[in-house]
Automatic annotation (TrEMBL):
Protein's recorded name: tRNA-specific 2-thiouridylase MnmA
Annotated source species: Paracoccus sulfuroxidans
Keywords of this entry: ATP-binding, Cytoplasm, Disulfide bond, Methyltransferase, Nucleotide-binding, RNA-binding, Transferase, tRNA processing, tRNA-binding
One GO term describing the cellular component: cytoplasm
Organism taxonomic ancestry: Bacteria, Pseudomonadati, Pseudomonadota, Alphaproteobacteria, Rhodobacterales
Organism domain of life: Bacteria
C-alpha cells in the first residue's frame, strides 16, 4: 500500500463517527428517509436535516389515490403524501413520490387475499416491510447513492461483535420489532432507526413541534393502509368475488350448529358474532376449513397451543441455525414475548415449544424470536398450523 493511501486510511480512522455511524461529516452523508406522511418519519427527516445530513425524502404511492382520499388514518393515503411533501418543503430537502402500486399489489395485497381465503390470518405490514420498503425502496436508496436509509420505526439497530443487531425499542408500548423480524443482516447494515431510543411517543411529538411541523398532532394510523375501517372481509370480497360464500358452523365432531356468511368473516379465537348462542358453555372459533366452507367451534380449552411450527425463518443469531435454542417467543404483536424453546427442523423451518400454552395461535401470523431476558431480535418465521397443548 502506498504511503498516501496509508495516510488516508489512518486519517479516516481518526474521524469520529457521526450519529448515523459514518466516519465523515453529516453534510457528506446522504440518507434517504422513507416518509409515510405521519409524525414519526417526518420527525426523522426533520431531525436528520437539522443535524446537517444530505436528506432525500421518498414517499411511496401504494394504491389508487381516489380511493385513498376518502379514507382517514391510513399510512399511505393521498393526504399523507401531501403531508410528507409539505414537511420536505418546510425543512428544505428534496422529496420524491414513487409509484409502487403494481409492486404493492403483487407483493402484498394478492397474498393477503389468498391467505385469508385459505383460512389464515396474514400480517400484510410485515410483507410490506420485507418486500417493498426494505427490498425495492432500499435498492432505490442505493441507486440514489445514499449511505443509508432511515425510517420512523420504533426499533433499535445496534452494532454488535458480529455486525448490526436488531433490538426492541426502548418504549415497549411503541416497539415494532414484531413487524420487522424478516429484516436481513444485509438490509440491517444499510438501515437506521433514529426513534428507537426515545422513551415515548410524546417525545416524538415534542420534536415535531420543535421543528414546526404542521402534523405534530396528527393521529397515528390504526388500520392496515388498504383496509378501510378494519373491514377485511369487504376488501377480500372485492379482490376475490365469491369469497363470502355461506357455509356451516360445526363443532369439533362435525355436527352442524348453524350457518355463516363466509369463512373470511371469522378468525381463530373469535367468540362474538357466531349466532349460535344458547348452547351451554361459550364456544370459540378453533379452526377454519375453507375447502368445506366450515367454521369449526369448540371450548376455550381447544384454543390452547404449546407447539408452534414455523416456516420461512429469518435467522439473525450469530450461530448457525441448527439444534436447539432457548428464546422468548412472541406470537402476536399485542402480546409480550414468552419463554420458549426453538428447535430447527430444516434450513428455514422450526418448531417452537411454548413453556406456557398460548390461546388463539393462528396460521398466517408471525412468531418472532428474542434472546432470553434480552431485547435482541433473533429472527422469526411464519406460523403454518397449530398443534394442541
Amino acid at each position: 500500500m502506498s504511503a498516501p493511501a496509508t495516510e488516508l486510511r489512518e486519517h479516516a480512522q481518526d474521524i469520529p463517527l457521526n450519529s448515523l455511524g459514518f466516519a465523515k461529516p453529516p453534510a457528506q452523508t446522504r440518507v434517504v428517509v422513507a416518509m409515510s406522511g405521519g409524525v414519526d418519519s417526518s420527525v426523522v427527516a426533520a431531525m436528520l436535516a437539522d443535524e446537517g445530513y444530505d436528506v432525500i425524502g421518498v414517499t411511496l404511492q401504494l394504491y389508487d389515490h381516489g380511493a385513498a382520499l376518502a379514507k382517514k388514518g391510513a399510512c399511505c393515503a393521498g393526504q399523507d403524501i401531501h403531508d410528507a411533501r409539505r414537511v420536505a418543503e418546510r425543512i428544505g430537502f428534496p422529496h420524491y413520490v414513487l409509484d409502487y402500486e403494481n409492486k404493492f399489489r403483487e407483493s402484498v395485497i394478492e397474498e393477503f387475499a389468498d391467505a385469508y381465503l385459505a383460512g389464515a390470518t396474514p400480517v400484510p405490514c410485515i410483507r410490506c416491510n420485507e418486500r417493498v420498503k426494505f427490498r425495492d425502496l432500499l435498492e432505490t436508496a442505493r441507486d440514489l447513492d445514499a449511505d443509508c436509509m432511515a425510517t420512523g420505526h420504533y426499533i433499535r439497530r445496534m452494532d454488535g461483535p458480529s455486525g448490526a443487531e436488531l433490538h426492541m425499542a426502548v418504549d415497549a408500548a411503541r416497539d415494532q420489532s414484531y413487524f420487522l423480524f424478516s429484516t436481513t443482516p444485509e438490509q440491517l447494515e444499510f438501515l437506521r432507526f433514529p426513534l428507537g431510543g426515545l422513551a415515548s411517543k410524546a417525545e416524538t411529538r415534542v420534536l415535531a413541534a420543535k421543528y414546526g411541523l404542521a402534523i405534530a398532532d396528527k393521529p397515528d394510523s390504526q388500520d392496515i393502509c388498504f383496509v378501510p375501517n378494519g373491514n377485511y372481509a369487504s376488501v377480500i370480497e372485492k379482490l376475490r368475488p365469491g369469497a363470502a360464500d355461506p357455509g356451516d358452523i360445526v363443532d369439533m365432531d362435525g355436527h352442524v350448529l348453524g350457518t355463516h356468511k363466509g369463512v373470511i368473516h371469522y378468525t381463530i379465537g373469535q367468540r362474538r358474532g357466531l349466532g349460535i348462542g344458547g348452547l351451554g358453555d361459550p364456544l370459540y372459533v378453533v379452526k377454519l376449513d375453507p375447502e368445506k366452507r366450515h367454521v369449526i367451534v369448540g371450548p376455550k380449552s381447544a384454543l390452547s397451543t404449546r407447539i408452534v411450527p414455523v416456516t420461512d425463518v429469518n435467522w439473525l443469531g450469530e450461530s448457525d441455525f441448527e439444534g436447539e435454542f432457548q428464546i422468548a417467543a412472541r406470537i402476536r404483536s399485542t402480546r409480550p414475548p414468552r419463554p420458549a424453546i426453538l428447535r430447527a427442523t430444516g434450513k428455514n423451518r422450526a418448531e417452537i415449544e411454548l413453556l406456557d400454552p398460548e390461546e388463539g395461535v393462528s396460521p398466517g401470523q408471525a412468531c418472532v424470536f428474542y434472546g432470553p431476558d434480552s431485547s435482541r431480535v433473533l429472527g422469526g418465521g411464519w406460523i403454518t398450523h397449530r398443534r394442541g397443548a
